[in-house]
Specification:
Elements lengths: L1 H4 L4 E16 L15 E12 L5 E6 L7 E4 L3 E4 L7 H9 L1 H9 L6 H35 L4
Antiparallel strand pairs: 1-2, 1-3, 3-4, 4-5
Helix pairs in contact: 2-4
Length: 152
Amino acid sequence: MLAAALGARVTKNPQKEIGWYPVMREPGADGDPLFEAFGSTETVFQWHGDTCALPKDAIRLASSPLCMEQAFRYRDNVYGLQFHVEVTEPMIRAWMRTPVNRAELDSLHGVIDPMAIRRQTQHHVGRLQQLSRHVAETFCRLLTTLTDAPHG
């Protein structure tokens, strides 16, 4: 939605990303406060079927083999993330039980394995929660800095 609001084209991705996928930190993330805790490759949770072009004047922060625009920054404090840094294990379990999501997985005819997602969640969710805390705390600090700045 943010990419579209910034004038970038949004299209269907050739393949849905649902489950745990690697994303690679891009050179644009160097020095970015939200991404300083990210390693060169992190495994994150995805649930999307769309992709977007990089908005004009945005900086690519992360990419993946299946979706080039995994994260971007526009100006100093506007961030777009394709992946779900906010999810917890109970949230993922709930998403997997939701009838519309189960129907979506069933429609993929085994391309994405729900049992594999459940197994991988136990392995990857701890690191994702570390990243989530860092992103949330850092973003709140950025907002505080902006709201504390003098208004002219």
